[in-house]
Structures
1.
Amino acid sequence: MAYAIVAFCVFLFSGTAFAYLVGATAVIAFLTTGYPQYIAILPQRIFAQLDVFAFMAMPLFILTGELMNRAGVMGSLIDFAMALLGRFKGGLGHVNIMTSLFFSGISGSAVADSAAVSNSLIPAMRERGYPPYYAGALTAASSMIGPIIPPSIIMIIYGGLTGTSVAALFVAGILPGLLLACLLFAFNAWIAHRDDHPGGSTIDIPPLFASFKRAWPALSIPIIILGSIVFGLTTPTEGAALAVIAAILVGWSMGGMSWKVLYSAVEATARLTGSIFIIICSIAVLSYLAGLLGWPQLLAGWIASMGLAGNNYLLLLIFVLLVAGMFMDTPVALTLLVPLLVPTALLQGFNPVHLGIMVCFNLCIGLITPPFGKCLIVVSGIAKINYWNLAKATLPFIGIQLVILLIIAFFPNISLLLPRIFGFNVL
C-alpha cells in the first residue's frame, strides 16, 4: 500500500488529472495489496457503476442549460428580473440574485450560472457604482442556488450513487433553494442601505409586460421539468429529454437557435459529461478496492469507537464535506466521499433524501470557498478582479450559507415537507 501512496503523491504533484490519478493509484494498490486477480473484473465494476438509469438525465439537463445559455436567453431573464426588482435600492443586486434563481431552474450548474451572470451583470453593476468585489461576491454566492433548485446535476449523481429517488431530491431542494435566495435578498437589501447602493431609475426599468412576454418561454422550462416529474407524468430522465426539446423550441422562438449553436452545445455537453463519467469510473475502481480491504467497516468501527452518532456524526460529516469542497470539484468529492460516509449515516436512521440535500448543499459551499472555489475562479477571471480580494468579499456570504446548512441539517422537515406533500415515500 505504501507504493500506492507514493504513486498518488507523485501523480498529484505532477499535475495529473484527478480521474487518471485515482484510477492509476487504485490499480497500483491492487497489485501491491495482494489482489491483482481482481483487476480483470474492473471493467464490469465500472460499467455496473455507470449502468444507472438516473445518470441518463445528467447529460440531457447539461444540454438544456448549454442550449439556453448559448441561445441568448440570459438577456430576457435579466430584463424581466430588472422589471420586477430594479426599481428598489440595491436593485441590480436583487436582479443578480433573481436572475440566478431563474437560471437555476434551467442549468442545474453553479459554474454555468456564475459565468453567464458575470458576463452580463457585473459590468452593469460596476458602471452604476457598485463596488466590484461586492458585485463579484454576490454573483458567486447567488450562483449556488443553481445546484439546489431543480434540476440539479449533483443531485442526479447522489441519487445514482445511493439509489435515492432523483425526483424526490428535486422536490426536496426547492425550499432550501428559496431559503437561500430569501436570505441573499435580505442581506443585499441591508448592504444597499448601509453602503448607499444605487436603485434603478424609471429609465433603467424595462416595461413589465413586455419583458415578461419575452421571458416567459424560458421561464416555462423549469415548470415543464418540475411539473412533469412531480405529478408523475415523466421520470427525471424523460423530463430532461422534454426539457431539451423545449430549450430548442424556446431558442428558436427567440431567434437565438441555429445549427452552429446546437452543435457547440452538444460538443460542450459531451466534454462535461465525459469528464464527470470518467471521474465516476475511477472512483468505482477505488471503491471496489475499498470494499475488498474493508475500509467502510473500518471507518464504521472507528466512528463507533469515537461515540459519533446522531447529531455528532452529522457535524463530523459537515466538517469533512466542507474541507473536501474547498479542495476538490463537487462531482469528485461526491463520488469519493458519499460511498464512504453516507451509508453510516443511513444506518443511524437519517433520511436519504434529507441527507442528500444536506450533502449537496454542503459540498456546494466549496464552490465559493478559497483556495480553489470554482465559482470564485470563474467570476474573478471573467470580471478581471483579484481572486483573493474577491474571496475576502465573499466571506459574509459563506457565513450565510453555513447558517442555512445548519438549519437544513438539524431541521429535516424543511427538506422533506414538499416531498411528503407530493406523495414521495420519505418518512
2.
Amino acid sequence: MHVDHLQLSDFRNYREADVDFARGPNLFVGRNGQGKTNLVEAIGYLSTLGSHRVPTDAALVRQGCDSAIVRARLAHEDRSILAEVQINRTGANRAQVNRSAIKPRELPRYCTSVLFAPEDLALVRGEPSGRRRMIDELLVQIAPRMQGVLADYDRTLRQRNTLLKSARATGAKAGALSTLDVWDDRLVEFGAEIVAARDHLTRRLAPFVTESYATVAGERHQASIAGVLSVRGADPEDAAATDPVLGTPEEPVTISAAAEAFRAALERRRRDELDRGLTLSGPHRDDVLFELNGLPARGYASHGESWSFALAVQLASATILRAESSLGDPIIILDDVFAELDESRRERLAGAVADYEQVLITAAVHGDVPGQLAAHTVRIEAGAILPDPASDATGEPDATDEPDATDEADADRASRPDPTPAAS
C-alpha cells in the first residue's frame, strides 16, 4: 500500500499542510526542528495509534489548539480510501474512513507501516516496556482485533491493582480476596490470549531477525529473539529479581496453556501482590530477549551491533507484514536513520527496503541518503513544504544551483568522521 496525499491541521508545528506522495522513495530534507519527522509521524499514527517520540497524544496537538486532524488518501492495488483521525487534547479521539465514523482502534485495518528511527536503539538497550510495545503494535497491524483485547486487559489490570491496594490498606479481608478472584478470571481470559499471540508472533519473527541482521551488518553473527514470560517464573520488570530469565518454551504456547500458567502464577504470588498492592505476573511484565551469539544484546552488543539489531527487528517486522497483511507492503518510514549509520550500513539498508511499494525518508543532510532513495525529494523549512530546487528527477544535485544552508551542512557533515563505529 502507499500514501497518495496527506493533509494535516494543527498537528505538531503545522497549522495546515498538504503533501502529495509518490510511489517508491520519498525523501524529506531540512534542518533539525523544521517539521520533517512530524509528517511521517502522522502517517505512523494511523497504523499504530501512537507516536514513536512521545507517550501521550496531547503533544501531537499544536500549541494553543484543542485538537489536530490527520487525513490521508491511502491506496492499495485498485482501491483507494480516505482515512482520518481527530486527535483531541482532552477526551476521546474520533476517526473516519471515507467520511463514515469508525472507532479509532479500527484504523490499523486500513494502514500498515514500519518505522525506523533513532529511538529504535532503545529496543536493544532500553526497558522491557519498549519491546512489549513494539511487539503489540505489530500484532495489532496483523490482527487489528487484538487492539481491543489489549485495551480490555489494561482496563482489567488497573481495576485489579486498585483492589490490591485497597486490600493491602484494609489488611486483605476475606471479602476483598473474594472479589479479587473475580478479577483474576477476567485478567487470565484476556492475558492468556495476549501471551499466546505474542508467542506466535515472536516465533514468526525469529528467523527473519537472524536473516535481516546478516543483511544489515554484513556479518554472520547469530542474532535471535525469544519471549520472556512472567507467567513461567521470570520477572523482567524487577531489576532485583532472582528468578531465572526464561525464554520461549520449545513448544508453541496455546491459549489454554497460557491460561493455566497465568492462573498458577497469580496463586503463587498472591501474598507478594497483597504486600505490594501490584499485579506481579502477566503479559504487562513480559519481555523479548535479544541475543547476539548467545549473549544478551542489551549488555554485550557494541553500538554498531545494537543499531544493526534494531534495524534487523524492524526489517523482520516489515517482512511479516508484507507476507501476512491483506494490505500488501507496509509503508516503510526511515526517520533520520541514515545519519546514525556508517556508509556500508546505509547502502545495505537502502538495498533492503528499495523494493517496497513506498519508502518515506527524512534527513537533515541530503548526502547522507543513498542515491537510490533520493529520486523524489521535498524540502521542509519552518513547517513549510517546498519543492527541492537542488534536485532533478534523479535526485542528484544540479551543479548550476547556488548552495543553500542545507548544502553547506552537507559539506560540513562530509568533512567530519562518521560517528557510528562499524560492528565489532
